[in-house]
Design a protein that fits this description.
It is found in: Membrane. It is a multi-pass membrane protein. The protein has 20 helices and no strands. With 540 residues, it is mostly helical. The chain has one domain: Amino acid/polyamine transporter I, CATH 1.20.1740.10. The chain is globular, with a radius of gyration of 22 Å.
């Protein structure tokens, strides 16, 4: 039976870096190359660099939060510290959807690639699973659940082992494909046949931003990290830099190794001709053993990523429950293992549910990418508000040049969400606005111990303004909208709107005398106490 235990500080720098890299290297690299080529042509190389730059900026911002406030489920709890429970509630909802569905996406990806060996796993003529295919997905989810049930160290050891294999195959693919490299491929129809808009769209719709988003699992397990003030920043930055290097090399190798005659009609059909890009290109080039290795890695790599999110999501659930805007039962931690088992059970149930209606990896990627970026986008505003209203908070890692980096990182995050297109933006952000209304209608159930509902609304109005502005601009813009705002004027309008909203959010955080950070009773080792109101000087 679960008791009110404490998290165990068992994760090292190696463990945390492998969690970051393992979360980043899931199904993204296995599917994205051909989609990026179709959307942007050879200029998709810049899409990978842009995506890596965006996530690096957000990762650096998270370094300040993660080092100063190493809390389980920090991605949900940081907004509470800066702007109150209402913002934490909105972030908790969208992050739980994104994380739990991501577990499902990875087992779907593993099943799709495994169907190259076992066609009975996938329905003929579609990407939907057969009954046998769905049972395979369910079996993988059960395995992830068991690996995470007993201790965080059991999970970490399994993840480290899986991660080593996961990186051997991409490096092997790079080395082999470069031996077939044809420079002339990069100039078919010109280097950027679809212009700047193609480069931008590939970041979201091509699966690039999805492929990069593995930083929040690092933050989610912060309470279980040894020496978090040093370990978290190093692990975050290392994860992004290494993954960017590998992703760019993979894309270049793929572009250059395609037989030139396949490009007679340009890049638009590559995603269909090479739907499983690295397996298909290996078979096209007659490298059967490499295709075999890719399929083996394609089952293991997404599985490892799904395992990581099975670990991270219960911490998000725990963090959401700690804010007081989710069921209290999810604050329970097993006394012996230090695992938030109620949250783990919920994660398992949701991940099984998400496998039911989802048809394929391609159908899910845009929505989950936008949802994950939304959870990342709050970080710059949170840092800015805490710097303004909690200047005495101990910050072992303080981001330099934040006056520029903060607004720039928020603008880039806003653009990535916008580039997801009207079909994604309209319902995803509209759902968030609906959840805001639900919160107000149920105000008698929400915490108001130190912040009134009126104050919570004042401190969170900027986010609703951001959602509304993005929906309007998306409807008028050129990414699935009416086209009233043509490119690049629509992108400039989104950037200008995001800049105004960033400063609005930074200046409307919780007033200094009301800022509170919950205590550290959740961890098994003592840390500096930040549980006092933060408008006061720190004790000597």
């Amino acid at each position: 039976m679960s008791g009110q235990g404490k998290f165990k500080k068992q994760l090292s720098l190696t463990d945390l870096t492998f969690i970051g890299l393992g979360a980043i290297f899931g199904s993204g690299w296995l599917f994205a190359a051909s989609h990026v080529s179709t959307i942007a042509g050879p200029a998709g190389i810049f899409s990978w660099l842009l995506g890596g730059f965006a996530v690096l900026l957000l990762g650096i911002v998270y370094c300040e939060l993660g080092a100063a406030l190493p809390r389980a489920g920090g991605v949900v709890r940081y907004p509470v510290f800066s702007h109150g429970p209402l913002l934490g509630y909105l972030m908790g909802f969208i992050t739980l959807i994104a994380f739990s569905s991501l577990v499902a996406i990875e087992v779907v990806a593993a099943r799709q690639y495994a169907a190259a060996w076992f066609p009975s796993l996938t329905q003929a003529g579609s990407s939907n699973p057969t009954v046998v295919g769905w049972l395979l997905q369910f079996g993988l989810l059960c395995l992830f659940f068991l690996l995470n049930y007993y201790s965080v160290k059991t999970f970490a050891k399994a993840n480290n082992f899986i991660s080593l294999f996961k990186f051997i195959v991409p490096l092997l693919v790079i080395g082999v494909l470069f031996t077939f490299f044809k420079p002339e491929n990069l100039t078919v129809q010109g280097f950027a046949p679809y212009g700047l808009s193609g480069i931008e769209m590939a970041v979201s719709a091509g699966g690039i931003i999805f492929a990069y988003l593995g930083l929040t699992p690092i933050i989610s397990v912060a309470s279980e990290v040894r020496n978090p003030q040093r370990t978290i920043p190093i692990a975050l930055i290392l994860s992004v830099l290494l993954s960017t290097l590998i992703y760019v090399l993979l894309q270049v190798a793929f572009l250059g190794s395609i037989p030139t005659e396949m490009l007679a009609n340009g890049w638009s059909g590559i995603a269909k001709e090479l739907s499983l890009p690295y397996r298909d290109i290996a078979l096209t080039l007659g490298i059967g053993w490499l295709a075999y290795m890719v399929v083996a890695d394609a089952v293991i790599s997404p599985s490892g990523c799904g395992n990581i999110y099975m670990n991270a999501t219960p911490r998000v659930v725990y963090g959401w429950a700690r804010t007081g805007t989710f069921f209290k039962i999810f604050t329970r931690i097993d006394e012996k293992s230090g695992i938030p088992r109620p949250g783990l059970w919920l994660t398992f149930a949701l991940s099984v549910f998400w496998t039911l209606p989802f048809p394929s990896w391609e159908a899910l990627i845009n929505v989950v990418s936008a949802a994950l970026v939304l959870s990342y986008a709050i970080a710059p505003v949170t840092v800015a508000a805490l710097r303004r209203n909690a200047p005495d908070l101990q910050r072992p890692f303080r981001v330099k040049g934040f006056a520029v980096l903060g607004p720039v990182s928020f603008i880039i995050a806003a653009l990535i969400v916008y580039w997801s297109g009207w079909n994604t933006v309209s319902w995803l952000l509209g759902l968030q606005i609906l959840m805001f209304i639900v919160y107000l209608l149920c105000k008698h159930l929400v915490p108001t111990d130190h912040l009134s509902i009126a104050q919570q609304v004042r401190s969170s109005a900027w986010l609703i303004g951001f959602y509304a502005a993005t929906i309007i601009l998306s409807g008028l813009g050129s990414f699935g909208g009416l086209g009233v705002l043509s490119h690049p004027f629509d992108t400039l309008a989104v950037a200008a709107s995001a800049l105004v909203i960033y400063y609005w959010g930074a200046r409307t955080g919780v007033p200094a005398h009301l800022v509170r950070l919950d205590g550290d009773e959740e961890t098994s080792e003592a840390q500096p106490v930040h549980g006092r109101p933060l408008g006061q000087p720190q004790p000597n």
